Amino acid sequence: MSCKRIEERPGLPELVLEHGSARVRLSLQGAHITQFSIEGEELLWVSQCARFEKGAGIRGGIPLCWPWFGASLDANDWPQHGFARTSDFQLLSQTSDAHHTGVTLTLTGPVPVPSWEGIASLEVDIRLSDHLWMEARTRNCSDRDLLIGAGLHTYFAVSDSRQVSLPALTGLAYLDKTESFQRKIQAEPLSIEGEVDRVYQDPPSQVELLQTKAEHRIAVDAWGNTDLVVWNPGPTVAAAMADFDNEGYRRMVCVEPAIALDHRVRLAPGESVAIGQTLRRL
Ligand code: BG6
């Protein structure tokens, strides 16, 4: 059991948590988990072309989207998925006992979007045991209401995205971002072919990600989310993204508990909201 700071990526301090055979690596920029492995098996995908640079989002792992998810509803020129993922966090505390190793991080960087008028605290708890548990908590520290969105933008590593299934989503309504947010029903089991970008509304709290050929199942238990986003860019969109490696879209599927679009939570002064998930290999 340990938590240590490493400096392999200049300008991007990182922490490594170890507990038994489980390992988490995370960047203090964005409180961004870039590795979660169990017995040497990587559960998260990180692009071979990911940029590990100050101020750049990291393609893969678990970017934390905050204080909005996706495009901002308030201004066209605000960055997609908010600014937390490119902001600095500080280590607030760490714990380690027989059951888990954990850290709490807090957002400290200056708000890089001056026209965003929120005053809020954001704390992220990460606990590692035989599974990963994480929660992001926002508190409105201002004297007026604050609208908060968020997302745990989890890139799962898969052997072939075409063989992935998410049975819990069958029958749910979703908004199809590839077709101007048209509302549709997931009548057939979801299959990842080409670009998939869907916001499932009112999702179940537990979703299993199955890979048909490999003996490989991951359970995602989420709370505090109003939506579950499934994203795979497919070959064309991926090829246009400089930080997506060739064939990367075959090796990943994003399953993202989120408070998306107009589901943003209105926090009165002093109120808090939390969004979290556990990831467990079955
Ligand atoms: C997903 C969105 O959550 O993130 C997609 O639904 C988006 O629309 C994807 O393309 C990646 O976003 P970004 O900002 O990391 O390139």
Q: What report would you give on this structure?
A:
By secondary structure, the chain is mainly β. Helices cover 2% and strands 45% of the residues. The chain has one helix spanning 234-239; strands spanning 2-6, 14-19, 22-27, 32-38, 41-42, 64-65, 89-96, 101-107, 120-128, 132-140, 146-148, 150-152, 154-157, 164-165, 173-176, 182-185, 196-201, 206-211, 216-223, 227-232, 252-259, 265-267, 272-281. Strands 6, 12, 13, 15, 16, 17, 20 and 21 form an eight-stranded antiparallel β-sheet that branches. 42% of the residues are buried. 6-O-phosphono-beta-D-glucopyranose binds next to strand 20.
Find the structural class using helix and strand composition. Answer: mainly beta
Q: What is the helix content?
A: under 10%
Task: Give the overall form.
Answer: globular
Radius of gyration: 18 Å
Order of helices and strands: EEEEEEEEEEEEEEEEEEEEHEEE
Q: How many distinct beta strands? A: 23
The amount of beta strand, in percent, is over 45%
